[in-house]
Amino acid sequence: MTREFTVVAAGPLTTVQDGGRPGQAALGIGRSGACDRAVYRQANRLVGNPEDLAALEVTYGGLVLRAEADLLVVTTGARCAGPFPHAAPTPLRRGAQLRLGPPGTGLRTYLAVRGGIDVLPVLGSRATDVLSGLGPAVVADGDVLPVGPPVDPMPGVDVAPVPEIPGGEVTVTVLPGPRADWFGDAGWAALTGQAWTVTNESNRVGLRLDGAPLERVRDGELPSEGMVRGALQVPPSGLPVLFLADHPVTGGYPVIGYVADEPLRSDVDRCGQLRPGQTLRFRPAPS
Amino acid sequence: MTRVLPSGSTALLVELDDLDAVLALYAALAEQPPDGVVDIVPAARTVLLVTDPSRTSLSAVADAVGRTTPRPDARTGGDVVELPVRYDGEDLAELARLLDLTPEELVRRHTGTEWTVAFGGFAPGFGYLTQPGGQWDVPRRATPRTKVPPGSVALAGEFSGVYPRESPGGWQLIGRTDVAVFDLDRDPPALLRPGVRVRFVEAEPR
């Protein structure tokens, strides 16, 4: 009886994710890793894993797994429809199936298993980077996902009290970026004064936003420069792209602002839960 | 002049006058990274420092950058990589004409002076290589190729580069090398890391 899952159906997009590959950006290797880091770490804690073990990032539900051994599983993040309890560590008997329906609100659900998903690491991480192609392939129907041995003791939590992920309009805090001066006061006012719509071209690389375009107050090319997640990069269209986990390491368009990314309450994490059609507002950080 | 620009809650962007200043500061920072800094990303005019906010503060990192003495020998201090190239690239003849050179002269210029990897980006293992003095000013192709073969040696702007794998690309292709510049089974996987010096040598007479 091998500790593993068989993927009966992968759903719209399921990937293996962990804490990513920090420290290699100078080699053109982005960090990647879970889009909603806080919720991913919480999933691991609930099944007694170290916080950074690999888990599944399930985008808009649709995942069906069969346990090939007795396994302990939890989901956090977007609450999927179906009988599987949310945020509650649940034993899955050998041969049992777990089905995740579409979430009512939110986009990304993290499924952690006690022992972690034990696929081969690439450059120190099991994260799938959809931009660079590094890491394990996107999870597909019929895949077998090995599960590691349990390490830490169980925390003894039955159900974790977790807030629901909001639907509708979301407001996040924004800080000025290195090239805010390319857009002037009027550009900043336009960024922070309207509701932006998340478009369906959004993915793990970034949220593509639609609204009244931002206008530059200066011309010229920007030499490429380094970026981190949360960057609001403004291409010539004037419509910002909010970079998420698989963003490019460097970019050649000016960054007007950064969404706040405090470790314990990250607004970038919250942006990772936005789905196409939702609206997003940027509130300037108190100065 | 060095300017420190805000880049959100976790990073600082240091802006410098030119590429040589970037190389010098990056070399010093990479040798002795400030506490709590997880990534240092050099680029054309900037060095980005990404911090772990649980271990440091942005002001502490800004202070550490201010105390850092740039390394003046950044162009000469790094490892040397020799890359044999067959100069038979699809754009060689046309580019030579554009630059008012013969193909042989272009190849001599490419092989005659040592290059330095200034920074990465674009794809894992892709390095932006520069020669001192900025002797190149190469226009990009008007229409980028959808598929550039791996190992292609190319020019654009003041830079040369080697495509680590098949990808789209708008640079002018002048040749090809068989050396894998990015190999996951090698440690480190990237051959062309910032600070590494590169000598292109002509693999066989054309």
How are the SSEs ordered, and which strands pair?
The complex is a heterodimer of chains A (287) and B (206).
Chain A lengths: L3 E6 L3 E5 L19 H10 L8 E5 L4 E4 L3 E7 L12 E3 L4 E3 L8 E6 L30 E3 L23 E7 L7 H9 L3 E3 L7 E5 L14 E2 L4 E3 L7 E3 L6 E2 L3 E5 L7 H5 L7 E6 L3
Parallel strand pairs in A: 10-18
Antiparallel strand pairs in A: 1-4, 1-9, 2-3, 3-8, 4-7, 5-6, 5-8, 10-17, 11-12, 11-18, 12-15, 13-16, 14-15, 14-17
Chain B lengths: L2 E5 L3 E5 L3 H13 L5 E6 L3 E6 L6 H10 L12 E6 L6 H7 L4 H10 L2 E7 L1 E8 L14 E4 L3 E5 L2 E4 L4 E3 L2 E5 L20 E6 L4
Parallel strand pairs in B: 5-13
Antiparallel strand pairs in B: 1-2, 2-4, 3-4, 6-7, 6-13, 8-11, 9-10, 9-12
Describe, in plain words, how this protein is organized in 3D.
The complex is a heterodimer of chains A (287) and B (206). With 287 residues, chain A is mostly beta strands. Chain A contains 3 helices and 18 strands. In chain A, a hairpin with a 7-residue loop joins strand 11 and strand 12 (206-210). By secondary structure, chain B is α+β, with helices and mostly antiparallel strands. Chain B contains 4 helices and 13 strands. Chain B starts with a strand and ends with a strand. The interface between A and B is large, with 35 and 40 residues.
